[in-house]
Specification:
homodimer, 317 residues, alpha/beta, Rossmann fold, six-stranded mixed sheet, 10 strands, globular, magnesium ion binding (chains A, B)
Chain lengths: 317, 317
């Protein structure tokens, strides 16, 4: 479904609309990990997250008729901003269903791009039900946050850029929520860095992907973690790709996530959101896996309420 | 005193020991400023601040006899870490006099590089008195944080790198405390980007440089600001350079500093310390000066206690 040409074409398509983000290194983080880490900084991406890639790739492929009716999605935050921004760039309307618990900074982001927000309860059922209503009313095209091949191909371009810059990676590790970034990362790795092992990191409080890998079929889990971007479960399009291409999923606790986030803020002087800290926490936790290795880490985003983050740090002391 | 060759030689000398830091841009910050901003990110520098440059340039020029006796300095923080790190890299001892009010993160930094800390009261008299004692006891060479041409030439290399990357800047703005960074920046500008106007930004609570420019002679001021790296006054070596080369000094309040710091954290996803936010605050405050212009901003460092930053953001709401 997603070929190397799909990813390269997506990259050419979205390139005028996204940042080529830097790959950062840190002697302090390398020392903690006992290996060489290469951070793909999607926290510096447009809208502050990799989601700008997939959303742009999907919206750019709509027909004129589809554009006229607008786009719709449900999202806990970064995808919502990304859809709103993509729609604004093309002059079309965006209808965004968001859980009422989404961080204020992410809601402000959507509003800043002119997206129309519909708040709902923070459950998958409530999101999907409200989205159906909105689409019935507007005729908008749904752009799913992850269970969509155009979105996955767009997310794959982050790892593509990483491999264009850094060669000979032993491991690449990405966070997993719905699996869009992880699927894209794994397909990019297959085509552009086939010697690199694909690992994933997941919050222990939302470990459906970990359980699904163990049982070989889609599993559900609770969705309870500070990593608010990773509370969704794998979809029917992402699960097979993850199962086939991902070697290992490492789960981490909220406490480990906060500690990893603090290390990155203090040592690298960059702001990452809790979801971005999940793969960092996995690297610091599963030391033996990464020691002496060259590991690429996809830092997925940087959208976090500052007061909230600093409260987490205080509580983590 | 400081020629173009001095700066280029300093750059070649320290290059193996420092980061070439990135120059970042931000559509969000440009929008706030109404002009094009180019941020030289010395918050990503070794020890988290530009001070790594000047300290390394000075320590590398010590004689073998001087190296044997070690180095000493007094500093509120970043220079202290920079001296300790430079000394460690060359295998020599570092004696650091620090005010007891220096941020804990900066003290931990000095200790992490094996520097020996001597705490004193947070006054210039107390610092100088204790430093004299330490030097009398050890025979160490003092490396002053700013009133030293080798240190200034090292600091000049940040602006040199900026001009190697970004041309046609209308303005460059740096924070001013003792004037080491500002002197270096102004000399680099004279030689490598002579069309660029040199401006400075200073906390209103420690505005000795602003007053000195007005009166034409060294003035003293209170030293009361959250920008803890900028509480010192110009020295007899930095004052003449500043007076000759700096067109304007803009003062900003602590409230303006906190607001600017928050904007940079939120919009750029990078961590800067209050002293770094001073020139950003000046750009946002004196809008007419910068509107429609291309301005380089030296972000001097990123060493801030995260809990302290939280308190500042909360109080600034």
């Amino acid at each position: 479904m997603i070929t190397s040409a799909t990813i390269l074409t997506a990259h050419a398509r979205i390139r005028p609309y996204i940042h080529r983000t830097p790959v950062m290194t840190s002697a302090g983080m390398d020392q903690l990990a006992g290996g060489s880490l290469f951070f793909k900084c999607e926290n510096f991406q447009k809208v502050g997250a990799f989601k700008a890639r997939g959303a742009m790739n999907a919206v750019l492929q709509l027909t004129p008729e589809q554009r006229a009716a607008g786009v719709a999605t449900h999202s806990s935050g970064n995808h919502a901003q990304a859809i709103a921004r993509s729609a604004k760039l093309l002059g079309i309307r965006a209808y965004i269903v968001m859980p009422r618990t989404a961080p204020a900074v992410k809601k402000r982001g959507v509003e800043g791009f002119g997206g129309e927000i519909f708040e709902c309860e923070p459950t998958l059922e409530a999101r999907e039900s409200m989205l159906r209503d909105v689409i019935a009313r507007t005729g908008a095209t749904e752009i799913h946050p992850f269970n969509n091949y155009d979105v996955m191909a767009g997310q794959a371009t982050a790892a593509l850029e990483l491999y264009q810059e850094i060669t000979d990676l032993d491991i690449v590790i990405a966070p997993v929520g719905g699996g869009g970034l992880l699927s894209g990362t794994s397909m990019a790795t297959r085509y552009f860095s086939p010697r690199t092992a694909v690992l994933a990191a997941e919050p222990a409080g939302a470990d459906d992907a970990y359980r699904s890998m163990l049982s070989g079929q889609p599993e559900v889990s609770q969705a309870n973690s500070i990593a608010d971007g990773l509370l969704t479960s794998l979809g029917d399009k992402t699960f097979p790709i993850v199962r086939e291409n991902v070697q290992q999923i490492i789960t981490v606790t909220d406490e480990e996530i906060v500690q990893a986030m603090r290390q990155v803020w203090e040592k690298m002087k960059i702001i990452i959101e809790p979801s971005s800290a999940v793969p960092v926490a996995a690297v610091l936790k599963a030391g033996d896996v990464f020691r002496g290795k060259r590991t690429g880490i996809i830092l997925s985003g940087g959208n976090v309420d500052l007061e909230r983050a600093l409260q987490l740090f205080q509580a983590g002391r």
